[in-house]
Amino acid sequence: MKHLTLMAAAVAGITASMMVAAAPVQADAAKAFKKNRCAQCHTVSGKHTIGPSLKGIMGRKAGTAEGYKSSRYSDSLIAAGEKGLVWNDKTIDAYITNPKQFLRDYLDDPKARSKMAYPGLKKEDQRALIVEYLNSVK
Ligand code: HEC
């Protein structure tokens, strides 16, 4: 039983340190979204600009932002959504690494095209921050 108590204490410790860290990480995450240009084309407020708003993006089927006309999306992104693409930590991370290549792989179609004029973000730590940020904009 003793080790269980120790484990519980360790978990409580981790939780406490996460709570302390939450505020600065959140600020870094928002910064990463701006710094890596996402904010040039996407709001997180529900307002659509060059790209669809990313408010509530997690768990949503690709190509289905409410009020963003489906004709504004690329055929490839719509097709990916119809094939079952849902946005989560993993799929967003892979998509923003290289949007065009991601769609080509996902659709198994070498001609797939993305309308997101963004070559991709190679820095893993920045992608992780952006994913964290998108999880917070419900
Ligand atoms: C130059 C403008 C531009 C930039 C920069 C940009 N995007 Fe996009 N984004 C778009 C457009 C346009 C689409 C629609 C793509 C399509 O239809 O193929 C899109 C689509 C998306 C989608 C899918 C939305 C949906 O409704 O299915 C996600 C997620 C996304 N972008 C995240 C990001 C992130 C994160 C960044 C920063 C790393 C970023 N975008 C940078 C314009 C941009």
In short:
The protein is an all-alpha fold and 138 residues long.
Describe the protein.
Helices cover 56% and strands 0% of the residues. It is mostly helical and 138 residues long. The chain contains six helices and no strands. The protein is globular, with a radius of gyration of 18 Å. The chain has one domain: Cytochrome c-like domain (Cytochrome Bc1 Complex, Chain D, domain 2, Orthogonal Bundle), CATH 1.10.760. It has helices at residues 2-35, 38-41, 75-82, 89-97, 99-107, 124-136. Helix 3 crosses helix 5 and helix 4 crosses helix 5 (99-107). The structure holds heme C (HEC). The site of heme C has 27 residues, from helix 2 and helix 4.
